[in-house]
Amino acid sequence: MTLEQLIGLAIRFGFEATIVGLVVFLLIKFFLPSYFSEKGKNLATKEDIEDITKKIESVKSSYAHVLEELRSDNQLKLAEIEREKNIKKEVYLQAVEALTRSQNIVASLPNLNINEQQITSTMTDDAGSIAKIQIVGSEKTVKAVTTIMASIGSAILELMLERGILTNRKNTIESLETYRLKAADEIDRYISMMTNINIEGNQDQRLWDAINKNVEFQTQQRDKYAAEICDLWKIQNEAHVVFAQKCMNDFFEITSLLPDAVLSVREELNLPISSEAYLDIFNNNIEHGKRVLGEFYEKVSSTQA
After folding, report:
1. pTM for the full model?
2. Is-contact 125 252, C-beta < 8 A?
3. What is the mean pLDDT of the segment spanning 148-177?
4. Maximum distance among all alpha carbons in the chain?
C-alpha cells in the first residue's frame, strides 16, 4: 500500500478507518505468517521435546543416584574419621597416664624403700601403653613422646647407679642397727641375770666376773655399732639430699619436654588452646615447684649443718 493509497482511504473513509486498515494490513503481512510458521515448528518438535524431557529426567535420576552415593560415602568417611579419633583419644589417655607414671619414677627414686623390681616393673607395664602412640600418632607427636621417653630412660639409668650406693649404705645401716639392738638385748638379759643372782644371794665370784665380762663386751659392741651407724647416717643424709636434688632437677628437665607432646596431641584431636597461654601457665608452675623445693633443701641443709 502506497502513501497515495493511504491518503485516498483517509479522504474516502475517514482517518480512523485508515488506522484500522493499517493495523490489519500489518497483522496479515508480518505477524500471522510468523505465527503460523512457529506453530508449524512447535508441531514439528513436539516429539523432540518429549525425548529431551525423558533425557532430562534420566539425567536427574542419575544425578540423584550419584548424590546419594556421595552422601553415603561421605557418611562412611566421617564415621571412619570419628572412629579413628576415638581410638586416638583412648590411646592418648592411657599413654598420658603411663607417661606420667614413668616420669614420676624419676621423682620417686629418692625413696629408697622402693626396690628396683618395682621400678622396672612399672616402666615395663607402661612402655606398652606409650608405644601405641607410634601407631596412631602423627610424626610430630611420635617425635615429642620419643624424646621424653629417651630422657626418662637416660635419667633413670644414670640415677640408678648413684641410688645403688645409697641403697647399699642404707642396708648396711639397717644391718648394723640389728646388731646394735641384739647387743642391747644381751645387755638387758645379763642385767636381768645379775638381778636374779643378787636376789638369790649368790656370791660366786667367777659367775659374777663372767656376767660382768659379757656385759662389758656387749656394751662395747653396742657402742661400736651405734658409732658406725651415726657416721654412716651423716654420710647418707648428705648424699641423699644431693641425690634428691639431682633427681628433681632431672624431673623438671623432663617435664619441660611435655608441652611439645601435649600441644601436638591437642592439635590431632582438634582441641584448640593458645600455645602462648598454655606455655605461660606451664612454665609458671615449673618455676613455682623449683622455688618451693629450693627453699625446702635450704632448710634441710641448714638443719644438717
Report:
1. 0.68
2. no
3. 95
4. 186
Find, among 201, 218, 220, the residue nearest to 210 by Cα.
218
37-51 exposure pattern, b = at least 16 Cβ within 10 A, e = fewer: eeeeeeeeeeeeeee
Terminal-residue alpha carbon distance, the chain? 135
Look at domain 65-272 and name its CATH class: mainly alpha
Between 2 and 217, whose confidence is greater? Answer: 217
Q: How many CB atoms lie within 10 A of CB 225?
A: 20
Which amino acid is located at 153 in the chain?
A: G
One-letter-per-residue 3-state SS of 180-197: HHHHHHHHHHHHHHHHHH
The number of beta carbons lying within 10 Å of the beta carbon of residue 271 is 11
CA distances from 275 to 91, 261, 271, 272 (A): 23, 12, 12, 9
**Could you give the CA distance from residue 300 to residue 292 in angstroms, rounded to a whole number?**
13
CA–CA gap between residue 127 and residue 114 (Å, rounded): 19
Of the given ranges (28-42, 124-138, 246-260, 274-288), which has the lowest mean pLDDT? 28-42
Alpha-carbon span 218 to 304, nearest angstrom: 31
Residues 86-122: tens digit of each pLDDT? 888 888 888 888 998 999 999 999 999 998 888 888 8
